[in-house]
Amino acid sequence: MSAQIIDGKKIAEDIRAEVKRDAAAFTAARGFPPGLAFILVGDNPASQSYVRSKGKACAELGFHSVTETMPTDTSEADVLRKIEEFNQDRNIHGILVQLPLPKKINEQNVIQAIDPHKDVDGFHPFNVGQLVIGEETLFPCTPAGIQELLVRSGNDPSGKHVVVVGRSNIVGKPIANILLQKKPGANAVVTIAHTGTKDLTLFTKSADILIAAIGRAKAITREMVREGVVVIDVGINRIEDPSSPKGSRLVGDVDFDSVAPIAKAITPVPGGVGPMTIAMLMKNTLKAAERQEVSRKA
Ligand code: NDP
Known about the structure:
This protein is of the alpha/beta class. Helices cover 40% and strands 16% of the residues. It has 10 helices and 11 strands. It has helices at 8-30, 45-61, 76-88, 107-113, 125-132, 141-152, 172-180, 200-204, 256-259, 276-297; strands at 4-5, 35-41, 64-70, 94-97, 161-165, 189-193, 209-212, 230-233, 237-240, 248-251, 265-266. Helix 1 (8-30) packs parallel to helix 10 (276-297), helix 2 crosses helix 10 and helix 6 (141-152) crosses helix 7. The longest helix is centred in the first third of the chain and has 23 residues, at 8-30. The termini are far apart. Residues 142, 165-168, 170-172, 193-197, 200, 213-216, 219, 234-237, 273-274, 277 line the site of NADPH dihydro-nicotinamide-adenine-dinucleotide phosphate (NDP).
């Protein structure tokens, strides 16, 4: 069997084109574009690079964006003040505080200071609660991207047994809750596994769809899955590779080379889940903008 390689780059491009079209219609109707504010605290190079990429996406898709860069020793109170400014700013419809934050700043206090209607990361407890009870809300970007990958690649999770390995608040828990919803593109039977799972293979082998969000290179091997499984590999791990010019390369949480030959479909790393996160951030921001402007009119 030769697996379908789920092309996240292409699917993300399609979504970006749709969002660009709809953002242009929003701007034409309202006279101003959807707006997204980034708060970047400290000088973590990976965080700087993520914010740059997201800012570039805003420019490409016709969004207004602002980046507030704050030094590492910024106090929590100053970050909260900045968030409140953006909460009040009518030109800003989405607020993204780039994580992780310096240790002395409490992440939960920061997340909870964001107006839930502008919480385009979907991390605010209000939005988490809305997701769990099946109400309309802003979903976290990476999990929302995974659902889009499944549906748009023709691997609808409805009625399928989905096994999620990993229970983080950013990926594992939200994707499990999204796919559990009694809605089109979801309605799956969901199992969540983690380090407390005694016999991981017992669960992974029973998966129609396996979502690996573990953070350990090639942790899922051929012996752990059954033939015909659909695999979504969320992991991004850098491993040494003397044959690469950089001396290292990125791999997922799934041993692609051994699993792909028996899978029905699989996402590559890179080029699978990765490109979806920014596409979904843009989609969320447009959705947030539309909802805020409708509620202002009402
Ligand atoms: P976390 O480290 O927060 O969570 C990892 C989860 O995996 C935990 O729930 C942990 O269990 C579980 N786990 C770890 N080892 C095992 C094991 N041996 N058996 C079973 N479960 C295990 O990671 P994240 O969820 O934030 O990220 C996961 C991966 O996805 C990372 O590689 C990250 O880089 C990547 N990622 C990619 C994104 C993208 O593509 N845009 C976005 C976000 C993340 P326990 O809870 O018991 O400790």
